[in-house]
Amino acid sequence: MNQPTPWAAAIHGLFRSHGVSIVSHVPDAGHQRLIELCQADPAIRTVTLTTEEEGIALAAGSFLGGARAALLIQSSGVGNCINMLSLPHVCRMPLVMLVTMRGEWGEFNPWQVPMGASTPAVLEASGVTVFRVDAADDVAATVDGAMSLAWQSRRRVAVLLSQRLLGAKRFTPDPR
Amino acid sequence: MTASPNAHDATRQPGLPRRDVVRRLLTDRGPLLVVAGLGASAYDLAAAGDSPLDFPLWGAMGGAAMVGLGLALTQPSRPVLVLTGDGEMLMGLGSLATIGVEKPANLRIVVLDNERFGETGNQKTHTASGVDLAAAARACGIADARTITTLAEVDHLRTAIHGPTGPLLAVIKIGADPEPKALPPRDGPFLAQRVRTALLGQTQALEA
């Protein structure tokens, strides 16, 4: 599924200007373009994960080593991160998560709804400051400010990229 | 109720003394960075002597190898050792696949395998039932994956840890009897800042 995500280039540019050198991800269609931009960028090491919590631990190790990392996941993976979020929380490390939302506006798949609905509460209960973006024009400023907060004040931040922004995934059965 | 778990398992070899194993691995450690998994592995690290290059975990179970990967990717000129237990490694089994794909040349993982969840009453882990973490690591693309049962092999491993190539995973079969607790510092910001200061210097360590 190729969704038009014109803001992906803006986020990639912010990764460059903020000096992000490690980007890890569990793929999501909404992050497809951004992942491709990162993979094509020799200044960024792009790491594919088997589960989202690996990315929390990877970001912690990257911070210890003096580098900035970002994690790209979808809302269904936020629940996988809960205990691992205690690591950056208790060690007061910065963490940047960009979360594409499922289970909300226009959702076709009911199995996505519970985790989508609990995503902001789960993140906030785990010590993560949550920002939400519904309009393409707001993506760059929100991500820029969230990343500045993370690095400068050593906070865990998540930017939720809403399903309204991304466009709901369309499911159509293949013709028999 | 605290009988030696080995007494119930006549088929298991006694296993190497874990404190001696860790002391040997850390002999003349030089620039070696160490991430220790929670519980007995972190206590073993503390018993071998506290260092600013140590990052012992007190939680985050299943995450030790990935913290090590983050350090290895961002400090490519230093060897990074992840020292953890079989229960912790089993919880992060997927990270072996991620590390096998990334193939960081400077990352070494040592699994101190007593086949038990030692912190919680010595319940058997899956390695007691034949799950082979070295074989799993090889299947994930970590070509140098070995299982060690003698101190001579431990001494060879110490040399390999400081060698030029990796990644490497070694499962060391250790005894299941508990050692006296030696507790590392547990304040998270202190531990993180101490490693960063050692690696980056104080000024840069205070930035993010």
Structure write-up:
The complex is a heterodimer of chains A (176) and B (208). Chain A has 176 residues and is α/β, with parallel strands linked by helices. Chain A has one domain (7-134, 146-166): Rossmann fold. Chain A contains seven helices and six strands; from the N terminus they run αβαβαβαβαβαβα. Chain A has helices at residues 7-18, 32-39, 52-64, 86-90, 113-125, 139-153, 163-166; strands spanning 20-25, 45-48, 68-74, 95-100, 128-133, 156-161. In chain A, helix 1 crosses helix 2 and helix 1 (7-18) runs parallel beside helix 6 (139-153). The longest helix of chain A has 15 residues, at 139-153. Chain A is globular. The two termini of chain A are 20 Å apart. The mean pLDDT of chain A is 95. Chain B has 208 residues and is an alpha/beta fold. Chain B has a single domain, classed as Rossmann fold. Chain B has a six-stranded parallel beta sheet, with helices on both faces. Chain B has a two-stranded antiparallel ribbon with strand order 5-6. Chain B has nine helices and eight strands. The A-B interface holds A 21-22, 45, 47-51, 53-69, 83-84, 86-87, 90-94, 150-152, 154 and B 35, 55, 57-75, 92, 94-95, 97-98, 101-102, 188-189, 191-192, 195-196, 199-200, 204-205, 207-208.
Query: What fraction strand of chain B?
Result: 15-25%
Series of secondary-structure elements of chain A, N-terminal to C-terminal: HEHEHEHEHEHEH
Per CATH, the class of chain A reads Alpha Beta
Q: Tally the structural domains of chain B.
A: 1
